[in-house]
Design brief:
By secondary structure, the protein is an alpha/beta fold. It has ten helices and 14 strands. It binds adenosine-5-diphosphoribose. Adenosine-5-diphosphoribose binds next to helix 1 and helix 4.
């Protein structure tokens, strides 16, 4: 098993490290345009192997030859948000970067599964889909797991219980229009409304929507990477181990939920072939309308693209 991570910045390097520590592949290839950065970070990570006890070899490079024949490729290349910026503000710059990266990846690893992380996420998935010409099963985006993780972590703090006992799902685009679903949130199988009042739920949903911006505001020089890399690694693990996990991911829709020709966060079964299936859960009128609005926002951003 060989996994490539493109972009050796905060998200990419941390993802490579997590993948190596979990021994999800024999080899992890870290690629970046910056000379020396992927080489130095990869060597540093590999030198942690004797202490951490993993055998996954991490190598860094500026080209794609070493990455050839990768089973999974995580794309994190691009610029990150600064305070006051929305993810959509990254569109023009990151679309060019993701296009260039995808061309090289598709050429050297024609059978790879692409896991997109660069923002604005849903539109970057579309750029990778169009550029690679891959089947949409093999082009999937990381957003829902991160948004859900934020939501679960806030709920756990509020209730002072283990995050492990909180099951939840967040759908929609990776932006302000994301659609957390309190109706499908349970704590140890017990519906959320039995644990807290509506005002508290609304406050936590709002904090989840702005979860990324909250981190950017603290960091000032960039955006989140510990939780994003954990989420990307969970997707890689589900794929390489063929776990068939049911996870919220950005998937290309062809009629599911009444939506077509758009990437949006939905529950999928994630396995060795990528998106094995888009899972259609029943939504209320309001939830459906919120999902449609979120998808319309993604489509609006897609229309601003010039590929
Ligand atoms: N090819 C390869 N790497 C590239 C390219 C390219 N064409 N263009 C930029 N990069 C690299 C940069 O050199 C940098 O090392 O992408 C890396 C991005 O790293 P950071 O600036 O640290 O950004 P990071 O926090 O990792 O976020 C990356 O993920 O979560 C999203 O919104 C975030 O779009 C952003 C992306």
């Amino acid at each position: 098993m060989k996994i490539t991570v493109v972009g050796a910045g905060h998200v990419g390097a941390t993802t490579a490290q997590r993948i190596a520590e979990k021994e999800l592949a024999n080899q992890v290839v870290l690629v970046d345009i910056l000379e020396g950065i992927p080489q130095g970070k990869a060597l540093d990570q590999w030198e942690s192997a004797p202490v951490e006890g993993f055998d996954t070899r991490v190598i860094g490079t500026n080209g794609y030859e070493e990455a050839a024949g990768s089973d999974v490729t995580v794309i994190t290349a691009g610029i990150a948000r600064k305070p006051g910026m929305s993810r959509d503000d990254l569109l023009a710059t990151n679309a060019k970067i993701v296009k260039t990266v995808t061309e090289s990846v598709a050429k050297h690893s024609p059978n790879t599964i692409l896991v997109l992380v660069s923002n604005p996420l849903d539109v970057m998935c579309y750029v990778a889909l169009k550029t690679s010409g891959f089947d949409s099963k093999r082009v999937v985006g990381m957003a829902g797991i991160l948004d859900t993780a934020r939501y679960r972590s806030f709920l756990a703090m509020e209730l002072n219980v283990s995050v492990r006992d909180i099951q939840a799902i967040v759908m929609g685009g990776h932006g302000d229009s994301m659609v957390p679903l309190p109706r499908y949130t349970t704590v140890a199988g017990v519906p959320l409304e039995q644990w807290m009042d509506q005002a508290t739920i609304d406050r936590i949903v709002d904090r989840t929507r702005n979860g990324g911006a909250e981190i950017v505001k603290h960091l000032k020089t960039g955006s989140a990477y510990y939780a994003p890399s954990a989420a990307a690694t969970e997707m890689v693990e589900a794929i390489v181990r063929d776990h068939r996990r049911v996870l919220p991911c950005a998937a290309w829709l062809t009629g599911e939920y009444g939506l077509s020709d758009v990437y949006v966060g939905v529950p999928v079964i994630l396995g060795r072939n990528g998106v094995e299936k888009v899972v259609e859960i029943s939504l209320s009128g309001d939830e459906k309308a919120a999902l449609k609005e979120s998808a319309d926002h993604v489509k609006g951003t897609m229309e601003k693209l010039s590929l």
